[in-house]
Amino acid sequence: MDLNPFHEFVHSTTLPIFKLNPNQSSIIQSPKDFLTQLKLGIQNANNRIIIASLYIGSGEEELIDLLNTKLSTNSNLKLVILIDYFRGCRLDSNNVSSYTLLSPLVKNFPDQVKIHFYHAPVVSNLVKRIVPPRFIEGFGLQHIKTYGFDNDIIISGANLNKDYFENRQDRYIQIKNHENLSDYNHQLINTIGDYSYTIQKTESGIELKSPFNGDRKQFINNFRNRILQLTDDWNRKTTKIRSKYLNQSDFSIIIPALQMYPFGIQQDELTLMNLLQHSIQNLNHTIHIASGYFNLPQPLESLLLKSQADIKLLTAAPTANGFYNSKGVSKYIPSAYSYLQWLFMSKINSKTTKSSITFYEYQRPQWTWHAKGVWIIPKHSNSLLTVIGSSNLNHRSWTRDLETQLYIISHDDLLTKSLKCHLDSLYADSRPVDLTIVGRRRFHVVLKLATRIIRNML
């Protein structure tokens, strides 16, 4: 039995490593439980609340009211919110947006609240003039989803919107009483906030202050240097934990990895490729990869095609895609992802050697699939590695958006069992599909061409 099948991987990483005690982590099982824990986190916070999400839905007045009440009763509480500029400022049919929801918090509590809107630097004023607002989001987003309350943190792929609290399947792991990890997350979100639009209270009301000074190249370099400095600082702070783990390997750990390709930061991409290179040739490993939007980057696709390990890929059936039956051209997005799935399955089918890759599709009536992540499960071991966070492990996650992931390595029997049981529950509403089944779906020639053209935005 391999006492630590992930020793070589950990030895090769240069990212911070945090110790995880058995009683610090728990899996949130459902969207409703996720909402419950968010409310409890707000109600119980005393010092800080840190929220990072793509957007906050226009119907989430209850969460805003909870924040307002908590701030009004605790003048020492600090609130930091980071969302995407384009998604967060887009008005819905009732002329409500994340910006209109959150602005009153700054107006009422200017000394306690900071609200930031990340604006992808690649989007120039010219692009904003010629590209419709909804399509601008294809150029790059703030996609990180972390929810921190004092020294507790929830890492997830879920946004703050009604669907994610009711019938959109995602993943959520809560880590409690972890000061160091919470400090790391707090510093990360504040650093990104320093390079984002910020709501400010002025004599005339509320305004969004731009972070740009006119020199975009310098802006990108400054952002990159700050993030790399943050990583280096925490790498030094956690050196003793790394050394102890490599010598003993008898406790669980967390490795955070960032993906911010527009700023030349590829921690998650490089870490995942390194991890899989250590695992795909191991016949004693089973690898599970899930994505709500299947569109593997070419390096990851090539690596999986060489695998000898047992690989299971879990994605959304077209009817479980979040864009199913949506309005406008976005209604074709589920078919586009299905076509990309078919392309990859065709490559698997053309291999001369027997493939060890099996596809599964999530399909639950009235539910959509938004879960993503990686699980590596060695045989004959109590160890397990899972990757959880915001990345969909696709082209745009690796090349356009801001993402954060946690690589959790469990050597604890109860945690490993809990992670396995949750994985099994995700498969409960899934079915295996092959090239014949997916090939029966009709892919119009125009859809095929368009999908290939915009593939790196999907």
The largest sheet, given as strand count, sense and whether it forms a barrel, is: 10 strands, mixed
Structural class: alpha+beta
| Oligomer state of the chains in this structure | single chain
Apparent shape:
globular
Radius of gyration computed on alpha carbons: 22 Å
Distance between the termini: 41 Å
Indicate the low-confidence ranges by residue numbers: none
What's the mean pLDDT score? 94
Strand share of the residues? 15-25%
Please work out how many helical segments DSSP would assign.
18
Roughly what percent helix?
40-55%
Count of distinct strands = 21
Can you give keywords for this protein?
458 residues, alpha+beta, ten-stranded mixed β-sheet, nine-stranded mixed β-sheet, 18 helices
Written overview of the protein:
By secondary structure, the protein is of the alpha+beta class. It has 18 helices and 21 strands. It has helices at 7-12, 31-44, 61-73, 85-89, 98-108, 125-130, 133-136, 162-166, 179-194, 216-237, 239-248, 267-279, 298-305, 333-349, 395-399, 413-427, 435-439, 445-453, and strands at residues 18-20, 25-27, 48-52, 78-84, 113-118, 146-149, 152-156, 168-169, 172-175, 197-202, 205-209, 252-260, 265-266, 285-291, 310-316, 357-362, 368-369, 373-378, 384-389, 403-410, 430-433. Strands 1, 12, 13, 14, 15, 16, 18, 19, 20 and 21 form a ten-stranded mixed β-sheet that branches. Strands 2-9-7-6-3-4-5-10-11 form a nine-stranded mixed β-sheet, with helices on both faces. Helix 2 packs parallel to helix 3 and helix 9 (179-194) packs antiparallel against helix 10.
